[in-house]
Amino acid sequence: MAFEARVGTDHHTAMRVRDLEKVLTFYQEVVGLRELRRQGDPARPTGVFLPAIQLIRAESQDVAEKGVLDHVGLIVQNL
Question: I want to staple 50 with a disulfide (CB 3.0 to 4.6 A). Which of 22, 24, 33, 62 is the partner?
Answer without folding.
Answer: 33
